Amino acid sequence: MQTTQFNTTRNGRRPIAEINVVPFIDVMLVLLIIFMITTPLLTQGVKVDLPKAANQKTLTTPIEPIIVSVDSAGNFFLNLAEKPNTPITARTLDYLVSSILRNNQNETRKVLVRGDAHVSYGKIVEAMVILQNAGAKGVGLITEPNSDKHG
C-alpha cells in the first residue's frame, strides 16, 4: 500500500504557510520616515516679525455675569433684576435677559445657571433654553466644589 502525504512538495519539504511580514515592515518604516519629515513643515506656518510695544494695562471693569438661579421648587431668580430675591416667570426672565444682552452688545457677559441639587433636571434645561432664546451665546453651570476627597 502506498501512503500519500498531502502537505509535502516534490522534494519532500512542507510548504511555508506563514505570511511574510518583512515587506509590510519596510512599507511602515518608509511611511514613518515620510511623516517624520513632513510634520515639522506643516506646523511651522508663516514667520512674522511682530512689532514691539510697551505693555499697557487696559482699564476694564469686570462685568457682572448674568446668573439665573433655580430653587428646589423650580422658581427662577435673576441676579440683575430689580428684586433679585423675588421669583420671576419664564417670560419675564426671557425679556430681562434679552434686554440686558441687547444693551451690552459690545461687551461679552457671562451667562450662568445656578440650580438647586433637588430641582428636576428639566427646569435647569428650561432655564438654559430661555437664556439661549434670549440671545446668550453660551450658558454655563455653577456648581460647588465637592468636599469629599476620594483617592
What does this structure look like?
The chain has helices at 22-44, 90-103, 121-133, and strands spanning 66-70, 76-78, 111-115, 140-141. It has a domain at 66-141: Nucleotidyltransferase, domain 5. With 151 residues, it is of the alpha/beta class. Helix 2 packs parallel to helix 3 (121-133). 11% of the residues are buried. 33% of the residues lie in helices and 10% in strands. The protein is built from three helices and four strands, in the order αββαβαβ. It has a four-stranded mixed beta sheet, covered by helices on one side.
Describe the structure in brief.
The chain is α/β, with parallel strands linked by helices. The chain is built from 3 helices and 4 strands; from the N terminus they run H-E-E-H-E-H-E. It has a domain at 66-141: Nucleotidyltransferase, domain 5, CATH 3.30.420.270.
Task: Record keyword descriptors for this entry.
single chain, 151 residues, alpha/beta, Nucleotidyltransferase, domain 5
Quaternary structure: single chain
> Which fold name fills CATH's third level, the topology of the domain at 66-141?
Nucleotidyltransferase, domain 5
User: If classified by CATH, what would the architecture of the domain at 66-141 be?
Assistant: 2-Layer Sandwich
Given helix and strand content, the structural type is alpha/beta
Fraction in helix: 25-40%
Strand content: 5-15%
Just give the CATH class of the domain at 66-141: Alpha Beta
Count of alpha/pi helices: 3
Strand tally, please? 4
Strand order of the largest sheet: 2-1-3-4
Largest sheet: 4 strands, mixed
How much is the radius of gyration in Å?
A: 34 Å
Shape descriptor reads elongated
- Intertermini distance: 75 Å
H-E order: HEEHEHE
Contiguous uncertain segments of 5+ residues = none
Provide the residue-averaged pLDDT. Answer: 78
